[in-house]
């Protein structure tokens, strides 16, 4: 068995003997048992009370985490004229239209999120089949189709997190780094859960957030009470 496997098994055994009864104690356990040599991400896997096969029950949105994500992201903006200037001033990594579309069509994907002004979505549609499956297509629901390009670029750089459930009705969200510490991670998690409740589909009945499991990149999963906060 590898050393990593031994550490993982030891953490599982420790978890079974530890009284993890709150979000704070769960986050403390995750942090103390993160053994990788790099600053591990802390993730939440959230089981939602939705029928993921129904389009109207898709849960999609974004939240500005109070303490950011801990990840530096590259922002691409499809914009012209004054909006192009505003995006560049706000710190966008790439700004343009046809030139960026051509690069994307040629296989270039060196960015983490894309923003577009509404008037250019017709042109952006040329690469929708490339960006869509990767979750990179600008979208109204997460605020990335907007004329307020400076605001969204600023938020993205500060730590705006976009989320969407998968085909199994589970949402996976990295909401910080181990180095943040318990308090900052808990603040981010609370903001995420609050935003999720706000994104509940009208057709979703019964309990909406059914289960939350927290883990670091290489760590074991720790289940918490989704109704604590």
Task: Using brief descriptors, characterize the structure shown.
229 residues; alpha/beta; Ribulose 1,5 Bisphosphate Carboxylase/Oxygenase; Rossmann fold; 2 domains; 4-stranded antiparallel sheet; 3-stranded parallel sheet; 8 helices; 34% helix
In short:
The chain is an alpha/beta fold and 229 residues long. The protein contains 8 helices and 9 strands.
CATH topology description of the largest domain: Ribulose 1,5 Bisphosphate Carboxylase/Oxygenase
- In round numbers, the mean pLDDT is 91
- What is the beta-strand fraction? 15-25%
Backbone shape? globular
CATH class of the largest domain: Alpha Beta
Annotated CATH architecture of the largest domain: 2-Layer Sandwich
Helical residue percent band: 25-40%
Structural class: alpha/beta
Strand and helix order: HHEEEHEHEHHHEEHEE
Count of alpha and pi helical runs: 8
Low-confidence stretches: none
Largest sheet: 4 strands, antiparallel
- Radius of gyration, taken over Cα atoms and rounded to an integer in Å: 19 Å
Quickly count the domains: 2
3D structure, described in words:
With about 230 residues, this protein is an alpha/beta fold. It has 2 domains: about 110 residues, Ribulose 1,5 Bisphosphate Carboxylase/Oxygenase, CATH 3.30.190; about 80 residues, Ribosomal protein L1/L10, domain II (Rossmann fold, 3-Layer(aba) Sandwich). The protein has 8 helices and 9 strands. The strands form 3 sheets. It has a 4-stranded antiparallel β-sheet with strand order 7-1-8-9, covered by helices on one side. Strands 4-3-5 form a 3-stranded parallel β-sheet, with helices on both faces. A two-stranded antiparallel sheet has the order 2-6. The longest helix has 17 residues. The radius of gyration is 19 Å and the shape is globular. The mean pLDDT is about 90.
């Amino acid at each position: 068995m590898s050393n990593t496997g031994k550490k993982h098994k030891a953490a599982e055994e420790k978890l079974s003997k530890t009284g993890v009864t709150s979000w704070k104690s769960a986050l403390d356990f995750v942090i103390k048992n993160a053994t990788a040599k790099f600053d591990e991400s802390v993730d939440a896997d959230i089981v939602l009370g939705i029928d993921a096969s129904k389009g109207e029950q898709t849960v999609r949105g974004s939240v500005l985490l109070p303490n950011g994500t801990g990840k530096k992201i590259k922002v691409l903006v499809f914009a012209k004229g004054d909006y192009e200037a505003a995006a560049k001033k706000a710190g966008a990594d790439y700004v343009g239209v046809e030139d960026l579309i051509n690069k994307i069509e040629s296989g270039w994907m060196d960015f983490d999120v894309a923003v577009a002004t509404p008037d250019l979505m017709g042109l952006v549609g040329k690469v929708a089949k490339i960006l869509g499956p990767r979750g990179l297509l600008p979208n109204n629901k997460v605020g990335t189709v907007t004329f307020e390009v400076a605001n969204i670029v600023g938020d993205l750089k500060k730590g705006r997190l976009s989320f969407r459930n998968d085909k199994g009705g589970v949402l996976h969200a990295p909401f910080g780094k181990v180095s943040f510490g318990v308090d900052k991670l808990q603040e981010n998690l609370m903001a995420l859960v609050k935003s999720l409740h706000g994104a509940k589909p009208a057709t979703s009945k019964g309990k909406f957030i059914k289960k939350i499991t927290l883990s670091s990149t290489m760590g074991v999963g720790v289940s918490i009470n989704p109704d604590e906060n």
